[in-house]
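INFO  loader      accepted 1 record
INFO  loader      residues=258
INFO  predictor   begin
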Amino acid sequence: MYEIHVKHVSDCIIGKRNSPSESLFVRFQKDWPDLDQDQAHLTLFDWEVSSELTAIGKEVLEWASNCLESDTFPRSDYRELVELTVLFLGGAVFPFSFRKPGAHHHARFMAYSIYFLKMELLSEQFEMTDEERRGVKEMSTFIALFHSAAFLKSRLSSISPALDLNYLSMMHLYKEENPAAAKVAIDSVLKHLWYLTEEVVVLSIFDRQLDPVLRKGIVVKLLSFPRPKTFSPGKPKFPSHKFDSIITYPDQLIFLKY
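INFO  predictor   done
INFO  writer      dumping tokens
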């Protein structure tokens, strides 16, 4: 789902696909052999931002650096995204060398994320218009601070409820930087909140990153209901409350059946 969210942000900041942004990637591919890829001349994240965004950036940098150290990536492009995120945020990646830009297509935003970060890192050498430079910088910042970690963590179902709520919270902070882009991201998230339904939110019990007090509150609320003999089917509801207040009816005890 996070590729859908970041696509909407890209459409807001850069413009919809099949637009000049496509030709920007083609130009970057064409200019690649002539670009100076010396890491001493890279354009990095500007840390002169709010204290809240600074805290997010430091958290992402620590998480991404730990990912590189553990080296458990199922795909090489996942590792490349993390390496570029660490590099953009001013971290150290060793050994590191830029990979030649690959295909960019509509199927996945992964390639676009990698392109944006590379173009920003090498923006001193890659010729762009002022408007293109602004868009690439804003997209690189969004990808590094908000998208990379959320996208790569989203495969873990147990942390998805907290991940979605945390992402929404960060988008409200992002409103101070880019109200329009933050709004489209929030609108996109609100259309894909199935991990926050009453039936599925109990998976967060297994999220070790959540405060133990909160996890205990979920269990206590869940066990306050008598175990039903049958579980009634029905359409999911999408509440906007804290986790323990989403535990509202005994059908959620289906997760304790075994």
